[in-house]
Structures
1.
Amino acid sequence: MDSLYYEEFDKSTDHEDIPYYESSKNQIFNHNFVYANTAGNFPAGWQKGRESKSAALSWEEDQNQKFSIKINNRSPNHLAAICQQRSYRVEVYEKQVWEVGAFFTAHHQFTATIKVNFVCHSSTRASYCYLNFLLHPGQDYYCSLLTVPADADYAYLELGTKDIATFWVSNIVFRRAFPVARLDADARGRLNINTVSSVKKIIDPVTVTGDFEFRRIVRDVTEEVVAGPELKASGIQDVLNMSTYSFCVVNQGEADAMARLELSPNGINWMYAAGNDDVVPAGQMKILVPDFFLRYIRLNYWTESSATTYLSIYFQGQG
C-alpha cells in the first residue's frame, strides 16, 4: 500500500498496520503521543497553541493503551490547537511535496484545521497554510498534499479547530511524498540512478475468496488564503481514484481575483488546464472543473492589481 492519499478507512482498522506510521516515513516526533514531557503531564514535543487560552487540552489514554489529546474549544473564531515545539521542527526544502494528516475522533460534524507553519533560517519571516477538514462522527484519517514554498527551511504543525467543539487527536502524519525516501535522491528530488533492475518473473494469479467491503472515497478540503499580485498555488490534490471532483473559489474580499487550474502527471511538472483564466469578482464565487485528466491538480490564484483579497478555496471530490 504505497498510495499518496488515504481516505475513508474502516473505523475498526488497526492503525498500527498502516504504512504511514513507519518511523522512516513519518517525520513527526512523538506523533502518537506515547512519550511524556519532563513534567509528565503532556506529550513530549507538544504544547498548547498560542490562540488556545480559553480551550481545555488534556492528554488521555484509553483501555487499549493508546494515547490521544482531547481538545475542548469553548471560544469560537480562535484556533484552539496543539502545536509542535519548535525544537522538534521538521526540515523541508522548497518544491518538496508533503502529505499532512491526522486521525481525528469527533461526536458531531464540524471543521478541524491543520496549520502548517513554514520558517526561514535567515530571517524572521514566516508563512503558513491552513488545511480545513469537515469532520464526521467517528474516527477517520484526514489528509492533504502541499508543496513547500520558496525560502522555507523547516516546518512545524498546529492542529485544532475554530468551532465550538470537543474532539480527540490520536495520531499525526507529516511525511514527504516527493521525493520519496525510498528513492536515492537529494533534497531537491534529483535522482541518483546507477543501475536498472528488471522484473524476471510475472507473479502467478491468486484466487481470492470471501466478502469484500466497498469503501467510497470522499474528500472535502478547504484553504483560507490571501491573493495578491504574486502568483500562488493551492495545495496539491491526488485525483487518481476520484471519478468526480471540482474546485470552488469564494472571493471574500473587495478586489477581483484570478484563478486557473493546473494539472500534473507526477506532482512536479505542471501545465495549465484547457480554457482561459477565470475572474472571481469580489463577493462572488466560481466553480472550476478541468477538461482533461492527470493525476495531480491544483489551483493558481492572484490579483491583477496591487490590491489583495481573501479567498476560500474548496476542493471536493468522490470516487
2.
Amino acid sequence: MARKTAHDDPLAPVTIAVGQEDLLLDRAVQQVVVAARAADADTDVRDLTPDQLQPGTLAELTSPSLFAERKVVVVRAAQDLSADTIKDVKAYLGAPAEEITLVLLHAGGAKGKGLLDAARKAGAREIACPKMTKPADRLAFVRGEFRAVGRSATPEACQSLVEAIGSDLRELASACSQLVADIEGMIDEAVVARYYTGRAEASSFTVADRAVEGRAAEALEALRWAISTGVAPVMITSALAQGVRAIGKLASAPRGARPGDLARELGMPPWKIDRVRQQMRGWSADGVATALRAVAAADAGVKGGGDDPAYALEKAVVVIARAARSR
C-alpha cells in the first residue's frame, strides 16, 4: 500500500508520488482528482507526459483563470523532464498558484533527483509508491485492500490469494474487489480456492505444500498443471526449497515455544508456523537432508545442468514426498 507523509491533504499545492509501482502511482493521482472534484465538480484535470510539458507550458497551465477554476496538473515520469522544464517546475514550487494542485510522479533514484529534492524542500506532500518485489509486501497489500473496505480475510486466505494471482498488483486488487463484492462475511481459504482454483493449482507453492506433506500424486499433478500454465521452473524449485527449509527450521526449534515466539525467531508469520507444524509430521533429520539434496539437484537441472527441467522437477517432488514419510 502506498505510504504517505504526515502532511496528507490531497489538495495540498504540490504532491509528489515516488516509486515505480504503477497501480500505486495511479491511485495517488486518483486520490487528488477525487478530492479536487469533491471541492469543485468542474475541476480541470491535465495529465501530461514529459514530452507534453515543454518549457513555458507549466506557466501557461497555472496562470490565473478568468473564472478562477480549480485545476489538477499531473506530470508523469517527472525524472525525464528536460533541464529547462525542470527549471520551470522548480520556480513554480517556490510560489504555487491558488486553486491548482500539481502532482509530480517520479520514479525515484538518481535521475531527476534535483527536482525531487526541490519539491521536498518546498514542503510537498509525498506518497511513497515502491515496487512490491517481495511476497511479504504483496501479502501486506492484500490485507490492506480488505481492511480498507472494512472486510475480514483470514491469513491463509490472503496468502492463498497472493500465491494464486502472483506479483501483478492490479490483478491482486481486482481479485480482492471481486471477493468483497461477491462474498458476505469472513473470506477464508476455501473461498479463494473456489474462485481461483485453476490458478491456485498452478501455484509453485501448491506443488511444494503437497510434496512436503508426502502427497506425491497430488504434488505431481499440481506440478504438471503449473508447468503447462507457464509457471517458471526456477519458481517451483524456489518454493520446494522454502518448504523443505521451513520443515528443517521448525524441527530444530525449541520444543514448547509459542507460535508468536517461533514466528519472530524463524522469520515466519504465526499462521505459517501452524501449517508447517502439521506438514512436518513424518519428517526426520535424514529426510530433510535428502530433500535438500534433491532440491539442489533439481535447481541445477532447471538452470541448464540437465536436458529436461520438467523431469528434474518430477524427480525432486517424488524424493521430497518420500522423505516426508522417512520417520
